[in-house]
Amino acid sequence: MASTAPALGAFPSPYSIPTPPGCEGWEEMYPYYALFAEPRRAKDENRFWFWNSMHFPLPMPAFDVICIDSPYQAVGSWQNRVFAVPPAMGIDYRCVNGYIYISGNPVTDPEKIGERAEFFQRRAGHYYQNWPELYGKWRSKMEALIAELVELSVPDLPEYESDEVALGEDRNTAFYELLDAYGRVLRMGDLMWQHHFEFLLLGYGAYATFAELVKSNLPDVPDQHIAQMVAGIDVILFRPDAELRRLAALAIDTGVDGAFVQGHTPAEIDSELEQSEAGRAWLAELQQVKDPWFNMATGDGLYHYYGSWLDDPSIPYASLIGHVAALRSGEEIARPTAEIEHERERLAAGYRELLDKDTRPAFDDLLALSRIVFPYVEEHKFFCDYWFLTRWWNKIREFGALLAGHGFLQDAEDVFQLSRYEVASALDELVLTWATGGDALGPAHWPPIVARRKELLKRLADWTPPPALGVTPEAITDPMTIMLWGVTTDRVKEWARQQEGGTELTGAAASPGQVEGVARVVRSPQELADVRDGEILVCGSTSPAWAPIFSKISATVTDVGGVMSHAAIVCREYALPAVVGTGRATSQIRTGQTIRVDGSAGVVTLLERDGG
Amino acid sequence: MAYSSPLETLRRGDEPRFGAKSANLGELLAAKIPVPPGFAIAAGADESVFSDIAGHYRQLGDDPPVAVRSSAVGEDSAEATFAGQYESYLWVHGAEAICDAVRRCWASASSTRASAYRERLGGGAVEMGVTVQLMVDAAVAGVMFTCNPASGDRSMVAINASWGLGLAVVGGEVNPDDYLVSKVTGEILREQRGSKAIEYIAGAVRRDVPPDRRDAPCLTPEQIAELVDLARRVERHFGGPQDIEWALDGEGNPFVLQTRPVTGLKKRERGTVATDAMSLVMKQFGANAK
């Protein structure tokens, strides 16, 4: 992605970005290596960096930095050291005012590229040839890891150790157990990220190859048609909502649907259901469904505050209320899988017929391969980003609760204001003073730091990061940047043009249709509650776990994402127009502003200068 | 050998005598595609053919208006048809007037491109056939390609449409409404509203379009779907991308007025050479280097 011949710099130098007022010292939240530091100025200033708003739309809390480090360690390991993708090593990241910018490391030496190609062909070939078997093993690995995480307990620090510790064999004291548990929970996180990227590059790659074959022959084929030809029919991501639909039907069949009143809280609905036998039976059925299907995240999982449906049942309950109401009014709410499948085959046959005869075998093979690999692309999100990660944050919260219990923090949640090393350090002092009986400094040391950082994050959230920094590349050639982020040469040109302002944003045409309406800019899942019926959702990126929102809104616009992003997948599912990957929708559009979304052309037009 | 024939009896094999336009229309009629009826005059005919014209004309109705157009003969016919489209006489009434228009078609054939043509074909009699076709009193008309002419994408139908007879679009006198439609799903993928300031109405009379209709869309989604369906059928029949002139009558019934192969279509660079899937995947990752 770095260019050898930098074009005119439309984007600011990463070294020229001022610190927003009152945010002095933000750097203390981040590792030294995450900063645009003076010693590497000459190199960093001459690279192209883009804001990874797809994964990191908000300023990073200190602990959450682990969700930058681990994924980039993992993706780089697979891409660069295992598969040796010939032209691209891994991804560097830097933090500016709490926001994350990334830049790939290209391989330019033709000899090295050739050397890597040999590794890649052999190793990637093995994965493609044995995909279903390897993916089956992968799922077992993930399920085992999640079970291990759930079982891990955060030991308490007792006044006296138990007799078992004192008199038994093979025992450990709480000091060791606690530090070990913390170390293990961090390592489990690393392992999850390792698993997360094992198949991802190859999965996207097969899909991208199929897309390229179609586009090189039929250049105007909408991206969403390509995605539709490949998309799975019965994917895990749709399962949680499918279960809710089933439960809604069950509520009606057993006559307990009266409990699902618009505006009632989950607790109110539950207590209403407790009143009757049928209601209790329904609750028992819900209990069966919850594990694993309520392990859906309320956001895309990379921040600690994105909990699961288990943590915040208001989201699935809102869906239940909606489904019950729809069923009562005679609507068909089941996912029309037969239709979706029919449409997918119709598209595939239609496009195939338009290709030259000698291109059809490659089309058939690539489509078949894409369909084999795509379930992983769609399903890893559920296992890793939603199920594992929401549980994992909760495990970190338990350490936070322990620290809060000993006065090191005011609240368990404050643990996320400390880096993972600082948490280790606080735990070290905690077990030290627990063991010695001495006075801990932590209760005086940590709370002011936490308070300062909360204030910093609040102020940094008001700052608008530019979509890119550094030099404008002549062309984006890095296959990973294109495949995973949808950042193409055209997209970067568009960002550069938008630096000069304008009333039109362009992105990928992700889901067809045209809609005009009032924008609602959502930068965190907490703000989802503000969304009103018929509004156009404008956000960094979305998660399919936001399901209830999609039945409310009329269209979606995101900053980053391609046609395979989750916003795109879900919008097609809900038949909502969507434009994804606009680069700066959340910073250019204000809540209340009237905008037009053309999901067929990939254009968002700002129809009035500002919101009311 | 007859020098005139009803359109519906002509087939591809008649092209050397009757010209591409007439032969193609005969093919379309045989394929049950809605084409206004008419008759054709073969190349090489002389004025003795005029005695047949009144009979053919009577078959078309009670003194109906017709279009008289040249129908070039020869290998180069696609291009020649294009050049010849300016030798179109619209809204011609009566056998006398038709004979006169036919004469003028012949004359144009021997003037414009004709010298090079005649050399190739060995000189002598006129090499230009003539198509006589019932006029469609078009409410809306235009041109459509069974591909995107800009990109060469064959999964698209590109439609240009404007009010009145197709003359306004063909002659470039308006900014037509412009649609790009997926041939596979029928979705309208691009829609650009034109500014249609003039139209040709019955009698081929040119007039200003009232301001309130200029920027209004002249096709409904249903009509677009019908046209796309028609485009698909025409293309399938000829087995290659077609450039089609069409019209909707006052009731909205679609007609094909003429069709010809798309010429000069941008040859797509075969960036992706058909090969086995795994090599293509390797190339995607830049792993095709040896």
Unreliable stretches of chain B (pLDDT < 50, length at least 5) are 75-86
Radius of gyration of chain A: 25 Å
Termini separation of chain A: 40 Å
Strand content of chain B: 25-35%
The quaternary organization reads as heterodimer
Residue share in helix of chain A: 40-55%
Q: H/E series of chain B, N to C?
A: EHHEHEHEHHEEEHEEEEHHEEH
Pair with the most extensive interface? A-B, 46 and 36 residues
Give average pLDDT of chain B, whole number.
Answer: 84
The total count of strands of chain A amounts to 12
What does this structure look like?
The complex is a heterodimer of chains A (612) and B (290). Chain A has 612 residues and is α+β, with helices and mostly antiparallel strands. Chain A folds into four domains: 126 residues, no CATH class; 133 residues; 123 residues, no CATH class; 105 residues, Glucose Oxidase, domain 1, CATH 3.50.30. In chain A, 50% of the residues lie in helices and 10% in strands. An eight-stranded mixed β-sheet of chain A has the order 5-12-11-7-8-9-10-6. Chain A has a four-stranded antiparallel β-sheet with strand order 2-3-1-4. Helices cover 32% and strands 26% of the residues of chain B. In chain B, strand 12 and strand 13 form a beta hairpin. About 4% of the residues of chain B have low confidence. Chain B has 290 residues and is an alpha+beta fold. Chain B has ten helices and 13 strands. Chain B has two domains: 131 residues, Dna Ligase, domain 1 (2-Layer Sandwich), CATH 3.30.1490.20; 122 residues, 2-Layer Sandwich (D-amino Acid Aminotransferase, Chain A, domain 1). A six-stranded antiparallel β-sheet of chain B has the order 9-8-7-6-12-13. The radius of gyration of chain B is 21 Å and the shape is globular. Chains A and B meet through helix 3, helix 7, helix 13 and helix 14 of A and strand 9 and helix 10 of B.
